[in-house]
Fold:
Amino acid sequence: MDPFLDLIRLLEPRCTLWGRTDATGRWGLAFHKRDDLLFCWIQQGKCLLVRPDQQPVQLERDDFILIRTVTPFTLTTSPGLEPQDSEVLVRRRPRGEGNKLGSGKTNPVTLRGGRFVFDSANEDLLTGLIPPLVHIAATASVSWRIRALLNLNETEFSHPGPGSTFLIVRLMEMILVEILRGQTLHTAPQSGSLLAGLADPLTARAITALHADVAHRWTVGSLARHCGVSRSTLATRFQNVMAMGPIEYLQRWRMALAKDQLKSGTRGVGEIALAIGFQSSSAFTTAFTRMVGCPPTQFAREVR
Structure:
């Protein structure tokens, strides 16, 4: 069982492309707070990523960023420059053409990017497990694989053939996996992200065990024995890395699985309860209502 792939399967990522943005001279492009998950490839040139209350991040040619718009941000040549609104720019551009920014011919920059869309009942929960910013430098070993996948995606999109829709979906899933799993990710520090948990050997062993047998009656003590450490060692490490205890994480993951199955409509409440480790439908309903804010039957009606 791979917790990372479990996450991707529940996210069910699809992609909406911005297309291409060409800029010269001095320019800025502002993005609103939307709680989206955006990605951007600096295909040519360089620019700055500016976010409130954060140091600017220098982006070089062939760098990638994956960014959650939990706050507004700007791509720019200068932090003090008044940026253009990205949404206004997209609405005004002629169909089939890219965006144009700046003036003159100096310092050309080309950006390619888009937005990941999640067809999942767990979008809010699971995007919360991804750090606000993932920055992959052009020198990172994973970078060339992402560029190759993006080029394949663009070819399928521009010249569709039999099976193109299937291939584009799978390619976007692979791009997201490659972005997130890179061994040399430069992620914004954030306790509580699944990436942080899987990067820590002890926490990763614990998370993998929980995902492998989600219905097991785990305790912190039994999980610690499985990982070969003391109860206090596991509890402290897990809390420091994940910003929650192991049993709280297990309950959140159980609810994520339950929400996904309720959305699909393939199982009843009782079946789901037993599959994720509850001994009765009533215990599951009580826990689900407490954590999600409504009973399972109501949630199922609203998401279908």
Residues 200-303 form a domain with the Arc Repressor Mutant, subunit A fold (CATH 1.10.10.60).
